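Here we describe the complex-level prediction in full. Unlike the single-chain runs in Section 2.1, the two entities below were treated as one system.
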Amino acid sequence: MTPFNLTQFYADWATILPECFLLLWACVITGAAVLGRTDESKSGTFAIWTIIGTLATAVWVAVTQDGAAFGGTFVFDRLAVVFKEVILAGVILTAAASVGTVSRLRAHRGEYYGMILFSAVGMMLMVSATELLTLYIALELSTVTLFVLAAYHKTNRKSAEAGLKYVILGGISSAILLYGVAILYGLTGTTELARISQGIQRQFMASGSFPPGLALALLLILAGFGFKLALAPFHMWAPDVYEGAPTPITAFLSVASKAAALAAFLRVFFVGGQPAQLIWIQAIAALAALAMIVGNATAIVQTNIKRMLAYSSVAQIGYMLVGAVALDPWGATSISYYAMAYLFANMGAFVCVIAFAERTGSEEISDFSGLSRRSPILAGFFALFLLSLAGVPPTAGFLAKYYVFAAAIQKGYLWLVLVGVATSVVALYYYATVIMKMYFPAEQTEGGFPVARTLTIVLAVSALGVLLLGILPGPVVDWIKAAAQSFVPPT
Amino acid sequence: MLSYAWLIPVFPLCSMAVIMLLTHRNRVLSAALSITAVSISFLYAWAIAFTVWGNPEVQRFSFDWLNLGPSMHIPIGIQIDGLTAMMLIVVTTVALMVQIYSLGYMHGDPRFSRYYAFLSLFTMAMLTLVLADNFFLMFVAWELVGLASYLLIGFWFEKQSASDAGKKAFITTRLGDLGFIIGLLMIYTGCGTLTFGGVFEAVKTGALGGAFLTTAAIFLFGGAIGKSAQVPLHVWLPDAMEGPTPVSALIHAATMVVAGVYLVARSLTIFMGAETAAMTVAWIGIITSLMAASIGLVQNDIKRVLAFSTVSQLGYMIMALGLGGFTAGTFHLMTHAFFKSLLFLGAGSVIHAVHTNDIREMGGLHSKMKTTSITFLIAAFAIAGIFPLSGFWSKDEIVAATLGHPVFTVLTLLVAFMTAFYMFRLYFLTFTGTPRDKHKFEHAHESPKVMTYPLIFLAVLSVVSGWIGLPWLHHGFSSVVFHEEPHHAEFHYGLAAISLLVGLSGIGLAYLMYYKRRIDPDRIATSMPGLYNTLLNKYYFDEAYEVLVIKPYYVMCQGWFWFDQHIIDGLVNGAGAFGVLWGRFQRWADETFVDGAVNGIGWLTRGFGATIRYLQTGSLQNYAFIVFAALVILWILR
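The structure predicted for the assembly as a whole is:
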């Protein structure tokens, strides 16, 4: 035990200040709601201000504090800054997009925002965790609240079913992840990623081969992350849960929660598992290819827009992991940029679904027919987000795909890129089908409708993100690249 | 302040976006927005000019726009030096005057708001073009001004001739742009960068040179040939007069058409490093100048005379640059922008009054529209190069630039003579003498103040903008806008006297022929029918293109169409037939194997889920099963 050191104590807690701030207000909002002291609109406003406050503290911490805290289990480095901002952006957009949904809830309106904030705390801890148990606890904190949120329409059978499926499969995957962590601990005697990396390297030097259980441990951890990321074949829960959960929560699940898991994935595999790359890199490539194929192929036959977007997001994760085979700063940069581009496009697409469903009560793709006449603004936004998901310039999605493919090609994974390009064509088909339906309907549908104001703001912000990232990528990429270089060990 | 100069084009960009998206139904608001935006840019541009002039350092502000992997990135940014500051002033000043003038000229037009949106688009693009610190961004802006020009030439697209002219302008300049882009690709291949600083450095160190550089420079000049309407791609500019007259003043006289001149001036280092290319530039310039001036002698459409005059003056500037006269070319660019836009706006005022472009139907208008007449006269004196107006100073610099090349000197003076002649022919026929069309004369009236005030403002500039080149000022034009380093140009009193004399004699001849009627112009025309008709028909360029390019192109297209119909479609249909066959086979395979497999999986799933079906989520176990199965498979395959 090191003796108590006040300066160190102060530095540790200053580093974790954004999470503390967020946690405090999450408790206040939830507590006030439980005690019945507030109405839901106040909770929503409160939640948004809390996140803005968190952003501000995060920026303050980023400026004033740097490096590890709590004996190296928690780190506030540049990668953490990038992903914390992505997550907070996702949370803020989710909270803003939830206003209509929450006002239609019969009970527990205030707690809804509290749950989102708790989940956000978990995600923020997750992207900073450099030790496997911290990582695990952070992951559980974010997931358990998501279980609750997925089942929030508890009288709705689909929502309840979604929650239940999510809980059970989430439990199984947590167990798998923990198994992996346990084996890794057994092999290296530590749960700190940097020391795990050293331990593996030392053993490899000593015996000329990897310890026998290492592959199993890494595969189990990969499967655990695969669940969080909805990576095929660990994605089976996603379509059911996405369809059943309240749509803002679906957006939240598909965006913020994945971003957090992605950051943790980068830390575990790019740092901890880096010396053992021979073991896992082929598996990642295979799973990425599988995700792109399965996700896109299944999305084609969907009739429900949320299910279609669910399968599309399975495919999107596949594209992101194409960048992982590069295992260098550019690979990490491409993944992070993709995550950012995907945040805005996918969030925007789901908010379009929310706006549409709020007015028409339908989530069927066929009902989007003729939307360009009924609500030109909504149709325009939706088309933009779908094009970005499909990877059409000048949207962010195009450059995102370019970066991951370029990173993979540099390492000789041509076959993977070919799969990616081929499946993008498939993807374009189903995205474009929706756009075709909106703009060139078989028969005219009547009845124009407006879009709620808060939703319009969320849509506009997302659209701005999609376009700015696509048209003016330089500064953002430089920022991410600096972050990637700071944590990926040189190869 | 300089680092925020990128805001200058952002103001008009915003006004365009707001007009298009929000205010297009409100005409007054749209125009007000557009004028406000350009006014801010105008003030900013002047502020920058006062900061930059006298400070010989080039300011560059750039960032990585596109970062395409470890070795490739494209920076974009702005660059501010004397030349940029001058161009900013020219563009914003003329744009502001034209936008104010248009309030009167376009009054009542059904697409009034759209007109202002397009003007804002153009202003934005042109300002970006002159601010760019690399060829890449410059090219983007280059294409955007082309687009704006196309939109505005064909603004009255109901008129067949206007929409045709728009297309002609777009396609013809596109030919030049092809050369431009080839030149850029060559330069990029040669030195791996497109920033001005990097490219010029490569030329200076000799990393880029020889025949390669010469070829690249000539291709690059192709862009200037198209945009600045040089022979042989000059044919679009006279037709571009179909657009509204203020547009002609802004785009086709003062700003966009000088983009080519600006390009040559900006990349003068490249041309100076390639002797042959520079001489090509000079020769194309003087040929264009001579040809266009001679055509201008006989045209009867007031705007066309001005259009050919523009082509001719652009040739002047290009020639001066080709001969290394950086200061001469850019100085004339500035003074020309002011007096030529004034001439166009004056012509617009006349057309507004008599509703015709034909000078044979005008005459005697001085008594009806004094402001227009006097400002027009000032501009005519300026372009004729009469002391002490702006044209005198800049034209003198151009003549001085030809020293050492006697052929050029003689031809330049010849053009100066013709310029003075056709400009005063135009003036006398329009504003003096007896009205030739009584009816139109009766209805003529002076334009509203919103149109005449810009005329007066530009007239003042046409007088004073040349005084920066006064010989007794220690800091002449060359000390603020210079190539490489400031230098002081010698003022040649002898040359100045000769060119003044030449200008005066041109005016004198016009005076005798069209004011005093001592010499009958018709007699001269009929005595030389061949020459007269050649000039009247603009050296038959359009006809030649029709026969040599367009007709063969159509024939070729028809050939390809036949090929497409018979060969390609045959292949496609064949492939289609094969596809149908293949599809039938696939269906059979699908029904037999795939459906069998699917049904099998379904059977498995049912069997698996049968025990705990009461959870209502029949497939949950299936999901978990897949997770474990995948793990096992990965473990085996690792």
